[in-house]
């Protein structure tokens, strides 16, 4: 094999240059700048920013709103991730089978994914609006009283969870559908010849072979569970009493409503660190168990 000439090497680096510039400008530099800013105070027109070490992190540990928001995010992730993945798998199996109007069913499941987040929020606002909303209109037929779904701390987070599951399940379904179509039909035929039930075939053959796709979907679901802003901005603005506020929305509020970019940088570092640890843990402990050679 001949060694590439310096001219060809130059061409290769030039082809990589645009992507490298964007990667550094919009990923590495903002991350490093955010980490650095978290060690400084918020400057004003009369007072410049000063190095304060870990004071922002100490303040975060005493911030009751941060802990409430973190708890909200944990509950939100706990419900949205497994339910979205389970629904996506069930929908993929259904539309991959012998079904009339299969294309229509697939399109119907995927349509919520194509809608912009702002449009989704406004659609569901029509459902949740007290008295005139679709849910209250239907419940009034059965004699139930009107409910302020987005104004009640006991129901508002559940309403946001329902919207997320409705929007994300169809997106994850596409990946499972693609994976199902790569499985050999001979596997199912052999299982039937051996007398295996559908549940046994799913549990011992299909689902293990879908584990690489499940890992990929799981990583995406975890990332999505920490980046919700649009729906909260339209529907609740984190209320009532921060009952629906999530970590990224709280960062947005701190940075752009309270104008404390230093503390927002601190919260961002914690968010990025949490996602990094989760991703590393998944690849270290799950990646080796899901691939079959």
TrEMBL record:
The keyword Transmembrane applies. InterPro entries: MetI-like, MetI-like_sf, UgpAE/MalFG_permease. It comes from Kiloniella antarctica. The chain crosses the membrane at residues 12-29, 74-95, 107-127, 155-180, 201-223, 262-286. It comes from the Bacteria. It is a multi-pass membrane protein. Residues 70-280 form the ABC transmembrane type-1 domain. It is found in: Cell membrane. Keywords: Cell membrane, Membrane, Transmembrane, Transmembrane helix, Transport. Pfam families: BPD_transp_1. This is Carbohydrate ABC transporter permease. Its main location: membrane. Belongs to the binding-protein-dependent transport system permease family. Signal peptide: none annotated.
């Amino acid at each position: 094999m001949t060694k590439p000439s310096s001219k060809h090497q130059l061409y290769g680096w030039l082809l990589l240059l645009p992507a490298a510039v964007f990667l550094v400008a919009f990923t590495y530099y903002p991350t490093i700048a955010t980490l650095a800013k978290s060690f400084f105070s918020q400057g004003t027109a009369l007072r410049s920013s000063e190095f304060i070490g870990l004071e922002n992190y100490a303040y975060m540990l005493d911030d009751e709103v941060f802990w409430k928001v973190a708890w909200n995010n944990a509950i939100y992730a706990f419900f949205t991730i497994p339910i979205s993945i389970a629904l996506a798998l069930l929908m993929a199996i259904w539309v991959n089978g012998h079904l009339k109007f299969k294309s229509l069913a697939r399109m119907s499941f995927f349509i919520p994914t194509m809608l912009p987040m702002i449009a989704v929020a406004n659609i569901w606002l029509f459902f949740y609006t007290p008295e005139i909303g679709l849910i209250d209109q239907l419940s009034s037929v059965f004699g139930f009283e009107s409910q302020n779904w987005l104004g009640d701390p006991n129901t508002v987070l559940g309403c946001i969870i329902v919207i997320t599951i409705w929007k994300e399940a169809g997106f994850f379904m596409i990946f499972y559908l693609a994976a199902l179509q790569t499985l050999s039909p001979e596997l199912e035929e052999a299982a039937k010849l051996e007398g295996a039930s559908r549940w046994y075939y799913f549990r011992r053959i299909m689902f293990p072979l879908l584990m690489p796709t499940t890992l990929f979907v799981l990583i995406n679901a975890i990332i999505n569970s920490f980046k919700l802003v649009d729906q909260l901005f339209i529907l609740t603005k984190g209320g009532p009493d921060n009952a629906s506020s999530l970590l990224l929305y709280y960062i947005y509020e701190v940075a752009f409503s309270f104008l404390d970019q230093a503390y927002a940088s601190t919260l961002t570092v914690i968010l990025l660190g949490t996602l990094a640890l989760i991703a590393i843990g998944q690849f270290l402990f799950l990646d080796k168990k899901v691939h079959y050679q």
